[in-house]
Amino acid sequence: MEFRHIRLAVSPAAVATVTLGRPDTLNALSFALLDELRAALPKALERGARCLLLTGEGRGFSSGADLSGSGGLPDDAGAALEAYYNPLVEELFALPIPVVAAVNGPAAGAGASLALCADIVIAARSAYFLQAFVNIGLIPDAGATWLLPRLVGRARALEMMLLGERIPAAKALEWGLIARMVEDEDLASEAVALATDLARGPTVALGLIRQLARHSAHLPLGDALAAERAAQRKAGETSDFKAAVGAFLRKRPLNFEGR
Questions:
Q1: How far apart are the first and last CA of the chain?
Q2: What's the structural domain count of the chain?
């Protein structure tokens, strides 16, 4: 598949960078872009990616759904979610590798939801997050109603969703909406360094961690403990674990191979 609305590049360090490439629209999420983004995920894995880095070209991460022309929502806005947004969110969460989002400028509407699907969100100081849906008479989507209460708690999630006001990066950091804030000029280098560190890690274990974190919030303690046991069994069977133990005992440096 030839990409026209995104760019995919996999570095020698096994970081797959997906850049939303419609800067003239602040990277509005057209259906064509969403299709390409979904297609890029398995392609990144096929090319050996061990971490996914999402970012936006130009002045912002994403202004949200493209409401203009053929990219706009159909009469049934729920159908658009079912066909485009929901499968993408599910596939992002199901990835066996960690996901980092580097947010430059605005992340609004479904663009904010997309960024917050990442395991670690790093934002430029000038960035902001906006649950803009209520401002056009819609409800938050692309996973926002599931994500936000888990990230910032019910009170702040409702404030974001009901008022539809900008949350600057500094406040997002204070609230726990994002993991890191950096100066604008440092965003790209800091994000790449973070993604590279993750790509060098024990990939199987990292993938299992992100899956446990996704499901733990609604599991009873006993079920969460059972899930940890099953995941630990898988992690303990990896070459990375065996090599790490050997390196520790022999006091030798370790390079995880991701398997």
A1: 28
A2: 2
